[in-house]
Amino acid sequence: MTGVVYLVGAGPGAADLLTLRAVKLLERADVVFHDALVPDEVLFLSKNSIKIKVGKRSGRHSTAQAFINKRLADAARKYKVVVRLKGGDPLLFGRAQEELAYLKKSRIRVEIVSGVTAALAASAELGVSLTARGVSRSVAFLTTRAAPGERPNAWLEVALAADTAVIYMGAGEAESIAGALIAAGKPPTTPVALVEHASLPGVRKLSGTLAQLPALAQRCGNGPVAILMGEAYRDVAASNIIASWPNEKSSEHSSSSPTARATRSGRGRSSSS
Ligand SMILES: C[S@@+](CC[C@H](N)C(=O)[O-])C[C@H]1O[C@@H](n2cnc3c(N)ncnc32)[C@H](O)[C@@H]1O
Predict the structure, then answer these.
(1) What's 230's domain CATH number?
(2) Measured in angstroms, how far is the CA atom of residue 98 from the centroid of ligand 1?
(3) Are strands 191-196 and 204-209 parallel, antiparallel or unpaired?
(4) Global pTM value
């Protein structure tokens, strides 16, 4: 008998943002293949399963996708409930299509369980609607990273066309992103906000203008960062900096100096993939 592979969204990090369906599957799972970004708090919900870390972080060792595909298929031949747990929503920037295609070819049943994607959790942290009425009628989820064969600058057209753009995996490339957007005609005064570790106790929020994006990104730490851009963030950007540091979640509009904040945040910048 062959088992079922469930591609499950782990959400942005907070365990209580998992769907009920995801929790039930984690409880029933025989084996859980999970991304690097999935926190222990979420993994603890799957008490009896074998946990296998297969995630990828940029600049670090990555388990080859083909190897992950094969391991999922092998596990389904051995176990009844195989969970492939991916950060956020499994169908957004998560290499899900490769896994789906391989499992389909291997005649293994797959079910998808949606999760809360980072863009939504990040905007919730800012208290801003991505589709603020009268301001934004379109939202683009994008990344500047191109797969082989993709046009490297296709993201730029999308970012220019959408009222609200959310850039995934972009903090490490903030300078080139801001430069490309401004050179393509986006006003340097366009509001931007960065949210690191959305939904988690260590959330950090920064805001300003597109011209300030590289400097804002410098202040981020090593966690995952979503960059949000568009008129919907005008009020947030006007408050210039809003920063929440670990254990200081309620102290938005902190009175400490930007220099002090930058020092505390550290300079490391990584994005996940
Ligand atoms: C490989 S993509 C995976 C996206 C994921 N499938 C989703 O739907 O959110 C990883 C990127 O998502 C964003 N991200 C994931 N979790 C985040 C969080 N808690 N806060 C802010 N951004 C996050 C960051 O841009 C990060 O580099």
Answers:
(1) 3.30.950.10
(2) 19
(3) antiparallel
(4) 0.87
Question: Residue 273 domain-assigned?
Answer: no
Do 198 and 240 lie in one domain? The reply is yes
Q: What are phi and psi of 161, to 5 degrees?
A: -80, -30
Whether residue 141 is contained in a domain is answered as yes
Are 94 and 124 within one domain? no
In the DSSP assignment, the letter for residue 192 is: E
- For the stretch 70-127, pLDDT in tens is 999 999 999 999 999 999 999 999 999 999 999 999 999 999 999 999 999 999 999 9
Within a domain: 206: yes
Dist CA 7 CA 113 (whole Å)? 6
Cα of 6 vs centre of ligand 1, distance in Å, is: 20
Number of residues that make up the chain = 273
Q: Domain residues for 74?
A: 4-113
What pLDDT score was predicted for residue 259?
A: 30
**How are strands ordered across the β-sheet holding 204-209?**
139-143, 164-168, 225-229, 191-196, 204-209
Lining residues, ligand 1, CB within 6 Å: 12-13, 37, 86-89, 92-94, 117-118, 121-122, 168-169, 195-199, 224-226, 271-273
Banded pLDDT at 187 (limits 50, 70, 90): very high
| 271 within some domain | no
CA–CA distance, 70 with 256 (Å, rounded to integer): 51
Any idea which residues carry the catalytic annotation?
Answer: 35, 56, 169
pLDDT band of 59, cuts 50, 70, 90:
very low
Q: What is the pLDDT of residue 252?
A: 39
